[in-house]
Amino acid sequence: VTGEISASSHITTDGEVKFLDGGVFGARMKYDDSNNRFSIEANERSGDDMLIFANDKLQLGTSTTNAIMTFDGSNVGIGVSSPAQRLHVSQSGTAALIDGNSNGNNPIHL
Fold first, then answer.
1. Distance between CA atoms of residues 61 and 46, nearest Å
2. What is the mean pLDDT of residues 90-104?
3. Distance (Å, whole) CA 27 – CA 24
4. Which listed residue, of 26, 29, 49, 107, carries a Cα 20 to 30 Å from 97's Cα?
5. Quick one: three-class SS letters along the chain?
6. Predicted structure pTM score
7. Angle formed at CA 66 by CA 38 and CA 51, multiple of 5 degrees
8. Pick the residue with more confidence: 31 or 106?
9. Res. 19 pLDDT band, cuts 50 70 90
10. How, if at all, do strands 75-78 and 65-72 pair?
11. Mean of the per-residue pLDDT values for the chain?
């Protein structure tokens, strides 16, 4: 199909939806049923960005929990739904681990 597609109900595909940029592959959305994985991928060429915008909050999570990361204005929260600072981490016990290098030496526990 070339041009616009509009529907008043569902659009179903068995495979992936590709977006072309001047006839060249630009991005795709696909669902892999064998791995239960939905992916949104930007172009494999360098210099392409993926932007996601929301009017108020952008929330990422799993299942019914949406507090993995919450972006509110310029604040980022992990484990909190309304971050009060630039980075707001809430967790009982150790909330964060900053590893000084890849072998686990000199970590900082918060």
1. 28
2. 71
3. 10
4. 49
5. CCCCCCCCCCCCCCCEEEEEECCEEEEEEEEECCCCEEEEEECCCCCCCCCCCCCCEEEEEECCEEEEEEEECCEEEECCCCCCCCEEECCCCCCCEECCCCCCCCCEEC
6. 0.52
7. 55
8. 31
9. confident
10. antiparallel
11. 76
Instruction: Please name the residues in contact with 102: beta carbons below 8 A apart, sequence gap of 6 or more.
Output: none
Alpha carbon 15 to its chain centroid, in Å, reads: 21
Beta bridge partner(s), residue 24? 21
Q: What is the pLDDT of residues 31-70, one digit of tens each?
A: 888 888 888 887 666 667 777 777 777 777 766 665 566 6
Residues 31, 37, 38, 40, CA torsion sign: negative
Nearest residue to 109 (alpha-carbon basis) of 98, 100, 101: 98
Alpha carbons 110 and 94: distance in angstroms, whole number: 6
